[in-house]
Amino acid sequence: MPARNMCIMRLMSTKIVLLTLLTVILGAGAALYFTFGKNSARTAQVFDWLRDPSSHPELRMKASTQCDSAPFIFPTDGLIGFIWDDSFRPGHRHQGIDIFAGTEIGVTAVIATYPGYLTRQPDWKSSIIIRVPDDPLQAGRQIWVYYTHMADPQGNSFISSEFPAGTSEVFVETGTLLGYQGDYSGDPNNPVGVHLHVSIVKDDGFGKFMNELKIENTYDPSPYFGLPLNANENTDTIPICK
User: What is the pTM of this model?
Assistant: First the structure.
């Protein structure tokens, strides 16, 4: 074999080895982050519960629960697994809260946590957003409450038939049935586990909601629900109230 080709093969082999090592290092880093990160104690409790949801029924919240004088009611049954500013991988910051039902898909009801005007964009299979014109924590400020993962892995929706795709600005009261928990992620081969994701999204100042995927476009949900839902302040306790 010509020397030039041998050299190219060695270079390619070296690149493959380096890429493999990088993948291993990143995977180990992620594992270390979950194991030893700032929220490791609470995260360990969450994963223990997910392995056997029947093991700790006292950690489950009930739909319609209102904690103390908080303005929002709880939107579904389940355990609050991940909270605002948790991280699923280095560099990631969670924009809301994840509530795990511990049931099959399409079983656990999701209700409106506060009154407002519901929109479901034409391409939304698992999501709705509710505009709250007057933030109960700051008069005159508009906020949006976003609910998602209400579909199966293939995108078959569990959102109530009252709110078909393309619904815009339909008023709903607190407690209105919105749909059911699912595990839709956008990728049929990568379901996210049966849960509801809820976040409180900022208004852009022109009457539209901001990009929910960025944490800086969301508010800490703690005072809205009356629970310790900020991962920077709650490192070891699964939030619960009765």
Answer: 0.84
Q: Is 64 exposed, middle or buried (0-12, 13-18, 19+ CB in 10 A)?
A: middle
Residues 6+ apart with CB under 8 A from 45: 59, 238
Q: How many CB atoms lie within 10 A of CB 240?
A: 15
Q: Which residues pair with 219 in a beta bridge?
A: 200
Q: Picking from 31-35, 144-148, 159-163, 192-196, which range would have the lowest pLDDT averaged per residue? A: 31-35
Q: What is the structure's pLDDT at 36?
A: 37
Measured between alpha carbons, how far is 51 from 191 in angstroms, rounded to an integer? 16
Show the tokens assigned to 134. Answer: 């007057």
H-run or E-run covering 29: helix 3-36
Among residues 191, 196, 192, the alpha carbon closest in space to that of 177 is found at 196
Task: Please give the Cα distance from 221 to 75 (Å, whole number).
Answer: 13
- The single-letter DSSP state of residue 122 is T
Residue given tokens 């709110």 in the structure block: 163
Looking at every residue in the chain, the average pLDDT score rounds to: 87
